[in-house]
Amino acid sequence: MENYKLIHTIIKTAVENGIRYIEDNPKLGLRNLLDLGEYFASGRFQKYFFNLAHEILNNEDSCYYDIIENLVKNTNHRNLTVCGINIGYNSFTHGANIIREHEKKFGFNIPWSIVFNFEGRSEDSLTGSEVSNIINSGRNIGIYSYMIFLGKNNISDSLYSIFEKNDDCAFIIFIDPCVINEETAEKISSIPNICIFALIDDYNESSGSVAEKFDFLRKYKCLHGGYYCYDDSNAGNIANGTITGTLLSLNLNFVIYVKRPGCSDVIAKNVYDYIYKTRTKINSPVFPMDFYGDIEYIDKIISDEPCFLSIGSCGQIGVPNISDETGHNIRSASLEDILATTMPEVKYL
Length: 349
What we know:
Blueprint: H1 2-24, H2 26-40, H3 44-57, H4 63-74, H5 77-106, E1 113-117, H6 128-140, E2 145-151, H7 157-165, E3 170-175, H8 182-189, E4 194-199, H9 208-219, E5 224-230, H10 236-239, H11 242-249, E6 254-259, H12 265-280, E7 287-290, H13 291-303, E8 310-312, E9 316-318, E10 325-329, H14 335-342
Parallel strand pairs: 1-2, 1-8, 2-3, 3-4, 4-5, 5-6, 6-7
Antiparallel strand pairs: 8-9, 9-10
Helix pairs in contact: 1-2, 1-4, 1-5, 2-3, 8-9
């Protein structure tokens, strides 16, 4: 634990200084931060990431320099530092080591993140105390990243309290723009371990209210982006540039594509291949991520076999997609027991 605290303090200082360097000189500052990150990289994911980043940024005209410069100038630096460390170090290094230790000990895979699907809240929904207990159990086995789908539900006071109490974890919130207002944006900005992705599915140039919602997030320098849900009917909008144009019109540089239930495997693979190519080969002004594909990809680097766990608003367990329920419920078994029952066996031993 003492070693963790020391390394965490060193990395925090380095990241804070690196962000200031990027603000003054984006290209040199970013390269210096990458060099420093590479020095501290010990896990397989970190080494892969920094090698890829160096390869991409060898292009002096890379749009990633502009994306990072916009991010640093328009986002609260404390937010960037805390989320960056909670994901980059706590999840992908410290947490990954704990995950692999537990996998070797118990023989079942452990996901690096847990997805909460709270879009369908009801009177029987999980309480704040129940959610808090799940996160405490997750942290004990190395899970420091949590994705929460809220849809048109507001971020409750109990969730805000959970975010604040678990300040070493990263919380990625997926929310409908309709619930964002100035008060919400101001509250979000005060909690540095939150990253917000707002739905852009129905946006067009005439729907100015959506743009106004993103303006609130930008005004309070929240770490944010957009997310787009796709299936066979609208996946073409991803590759033909329609979504990129929408994102740029909203002054967004980050997007997460979320596969809808019922999307064919062929379309899902085509979308993921396009996203991967865009990130590594195409000089795009928008950085794309694939929700399911990238969760799986990161998990394969950490644990060799991919695994995915979602928890519904009433505790129902789903794998591998949010809607694929298993019949298990977190209220009737511990998180460890749920994982032992639903996750694949470890094969890399």
